[in-house]
Amino acid sequence: MKKTVLWGIGAFLLLLTISGWAGYSRYEPEPPKLELIVDQKSVVIEPMTFSLQKWGRAAAADTYSEPAALVKEDTPVSINTSENFKLTFEDAPESVKYYLWDINTGKLAYKDLNGYPLNLKNSNVASGDYAMEIRAKWANGYVFYNIRIVAYNNKK
């Protein structure tokens, strides 16, 4: 009777270890979701480039193109530079930097825009069509998000 119980417990622990290892070996860290909220409308921004580590596992993706080229065919989101818009991360990052790339030329128009939340009016951003690159950093890695925006100034 005692041997059967010990064999049963041993088999259960072995099965638990094997299933735990199988789950761990398939695990890959995923980038946190990012949402842009403008005029009470929500737009999900997909990650483009990232490098993350968690529980001894790593995941990475790299896009080999400029942000303006990546989002040139996307439908732009209109943002009034005099109003606030909100970026909501699934997990709050340690730091966030923003870059605006001119869609037509592909050149960097505004660099190192800081702030969370970002205020385009304080950064003196001119009206135009841009690729916004959002670089977020966490303790376990970083993620670059890109979205096409049309900035305009229409004071109410």
Would you summarize the structure shown here?
The protein has 156 residues and is of the alpha+beta class.
How does this structure look, described?
With 156 residues, the chain is of the alpha+beta class. It has two domains: 1-28; 34-152, Immunoglobulin-like. Helices cover 19% and strands 44% of the residues. The protein contains two helices and ten strands. It has helices at residues 2-26, 67-71, and strands at residues 34-38, 41-45, 47-54, 57-61, 77-80, 86-89, 95-102, 108-114, 128-138, 141-152. Strands 3, 4, 5, 7, 8, 9 and 10 form a seven-stranded mixed β-sheet that branches. The chain has a three-stranded antiparallel β-sheet with strand order 2-1-6, with no helix packed on it. It starts with a helix and ends with a strand. The model has no long low-confidence stretch (mean pLDDT 83).
* Residues in β-strands, percent: 35-45%
Q: What is the helix content?
A: 10-25%
The largest pleated sheet is described as: 7 strands, mixed
| Rg measurement, Å | 22 Å
CATH class of the largest domain: Mainly Beta
- Structural classification: alpha+beta
Number of strands: 10
The count of domains is 2
Mean pLDDT: 83
Tell me, briefly, the overall form. Answer: elongated
Distance between the termini: 82 Å
Uncertain residue ranges = none
Looking at the structure, the CATH topology of the largest domain is: Immunoglobulin-like
